[in-house]
Write a structure and sequence with these properties.
2 copies of one chain form a homodimer. Chain A is of the alpha+beta class and 383 residues long. In chain A, 27% of the residues lie in helices and 26% in strands. Chain A is built from 8 helices and 19 strands. In chain A, α3 packs parallel to α8. The interface between A and B is large, with 48 and 48 residues.
Chain lengths: 383, 383
């Protein structure tokens, strides 16, 4: 093209070149990338563009949101392609290279969908609430304790707020916060951005400082799974589910809470103890808190169903004990969202301090849960 | 084969079948695998056997220790194969699928070699010292602080020993512990097993409880890199190296140590402050501690060279200030190991409390550094 008169570049050709440059600028490396990696990239529409060097491959796909998008091979042996727009927030994904499902070597790795694998962050209009800022920072503490219930050493994370321990006389409420099915105790701290959400809320004076404890809701260790009672049905999955939930309840009530109260600066009483969880963790929260009203005074269920007034046997006793009930869903989660909203309203009419939050434009995914924690944290322990 | 008389199975055929069964039993899932994954497996010889489903691939390799081992395709579309024996301990590795270098979807992921990628653990005769045990556990705390030097928010890990904070009057010595080139602040906590090593030593009464701080020795943030002095040479890499080291020194001395002393229960004086590091972190340790004898009283250099008596300008002043000098290498690291041993002996002759440790049968790899920390922790802060 070097002998073409410049004038020919004017008009459509020049416009096309400028358009390409602008399009290139609109793609930004995802914040979930490994240090220094240009791909995957995301654009303002929420599309994900992946690139991988696979010179001898015959087929490469980007697999995100249960949809596979084909990548196209370039002259340099790299494959590139992009997805349809994704919801704001965090998504698990993987690559498929000649039939092999593998993590993208360019992304950081997160635990979800029962595996450590790739994740990609789509910028969100409200991402400021989980941004890393120059505010006082709490700590995300990784530690272990022995559980008699599971007959094993359990791996937990404990968030402690900024300034924790400076005044040894100051004690804090505790939120027990659970992950979803196929996830583990790392989810809320990694892709959930729990520490950043809390640090920012506390710096802005919008939440009371409290401790957050994150356990593994799947890990039954060496515990024998209790048999379900008569009438549970014969479906092996639901019977196994029952056993798992029962072990987890015993771990939380008999081992975890005593360990936390013995080793952290807690206000070790029902009024200053809450439980919340997402999806499966929300179901566990409902089951455990309804069974133990003397242990927890606040209940948060994120994308994990809701509680109907009919489920509460003694409403006066419930209102006396439970100071906050919070349900949330992503707006795309139907019919759960509509049901939860109605259930929250019914509880409010019955005199319960109940709240419903709906995350706009999101589904059963982390952006719904980050926003839910952000809302719940501003409501809990306010008495 | 169903009509073959049983007798034919006797002799060589039966021996071969039994041999196969025994061989299968000798392969064990690596402890670094994702939960529930059977592969990669390791055997008593230290071989790694990888398996990946890649039905449409034409070539799959296991890439470990800078050597690629071909995998063989089975009828089910999976590829399987194993490496030559590896040293005891931890190794970074990856798979190559039709020319694409990707993490193994079955392993957990670790940061090293400038990337998050697969790691595999080869059982070691001495693995008990970093095993997870039912002893009192410290905490590995993830937090952030603002550095004026790097004009950025920095990500650090702080190990606090069991019982830390229970008696707010009890204060602890501090070890600043650095990773190697291509690694980051997560290395000592993840593949280094720092918390387990310390918890086990403290439980056995073999080490004094102390705090360990892990920074990122590469991250210069938004700092302008200082220019090297005249005579540094014109090699761009060594000039850039100089700038990076200078920024890191300023971060440690001016920002990190003041932050730690202001926010943790430290004994904030030279006698109770040590620095150690592996490889590049060892070089940084040498440079920073020799320049700041009023800040650190103990020096640990793991696979990062050594200090010659001639480098110490005022030996009396050095002996007065520095209470411990520790060099270590893997026995396969030559000539560094031999030189460091001789240098440690020369320092001892000059009256310095110097120690040399050699990790048997290992090279420039994490098993050398886990063992080095295990040794160093028993020697430091003993005055």
């Amino acid at each position: 093209m070097k002998n073409l008169p410049l004038a020919i570049l004017a008009g459509p050709v020049l416009a096309s070149l400028i358009g390409s440059l602008q399009a290139a600028e609109a793609w930004q490396p995802a914040t979930t990338n490994q240090p220094g990696r240009e791909y995957p990239r995301v654009d303002e529409k929420g599309r994900v563009q992946a690139r991988v060097l696979a010179p001898a491959a015959t087929s490469v796909q980007l697999d995100i949101g249960a949809v596979r998008y084909p990548l196209t091979k370039g002259d340099d042996g790299s494959w590139i392609g992009n997805s349809e727009p994704q919801d704001e927030g965090f998504h698990y994904y993987q690559l498929n290279i000649d039939g092999a499902n593998v993590p993208d070597p360019n992304s950081r790795y997160y635990y979800g969908a029962n595996r450590w694998g790739s994740g990609v962050e789509i910028p969100a209009k409200d991402e400021d609430f989980y941004a890393l800022k120059n505010v006082p920072h709490g700590e995300l503490r990784e530690t272990y304790y022995h559980s008699a219930t599971s007959k094993s050493i359990r791996h937990i994370f404990v968030y402690t707020p900024p300034g924790y321990g400076k005044d040894p006389g100051k004690r804090y409420p505790v939120l027990y916060l659970q992950h979803g099915g196929g996830e583990n105790e790392t989810g809320w701290g990694n892709q959930g951005h729990t520490a950043r959400i809390m640090d920012n809320l506390i710096a802005a004076g919008k939440a009371k400082p409290f401790i957050i404890v994150m356990e593994n809701g799947h890990d039954t260790g060496k515990a024998e799974l209790p048999k379900p009672p008569e009438g549970t049905g014969q479906d092996p999955r639901s019977r196994r589910f029952f056993g798992h939930f029962q072990v987890f309840e015993n771990v939380v009530i008999n081992d975890l809470i005593p360990f936390i109260d013995a080793n952290y600066l807690t206000q070790a009483d029902q009024a200053q103890r809450a439980m919340a969880g997402l999806s499966m963790g929300g179901m566990q929260t409902r089951a455990i808190t309804l069974k133990h009203p003397d242990v927890f005074s606040a209940i948060g269920v994120f994308s994990g169903g809701s509680i109907k007034t009919a489920e509460i046997q003694d409403m006066d006793a419930f209102k006396n004990k439970v100071k906050l009930v919070f349900f949330s869903f992503g707006s795309k989660e139907q019919p759960g969202a509509t049901t939860a909203k109605a259930d929250a309203e019914a509880l409010k009419k019955a005199g319960v301090n109940s709240h419903y939050y709906e995350s706009p434009g999101t589904a059963h995914e982390w952006q719904s849960w980050r926003r839910s924690l952000h809302q719940f944290a501003q409501l809990v322990f306010q008495d």
